[in-house]
Amino acid sequence: MTPxxxxxxxxxxxxxxxxxxxxxxxxxxxxxxxx
Length: 35
Description:
flat
């Protein structure tokens, strides 16, 4: 596998449905970590 390009979310609004568990939680945690 090749790494994917990441894009900055700076200045963006992120809506995560189902952020309390599973993949939604993982996405929320990653977004919070990355700022």
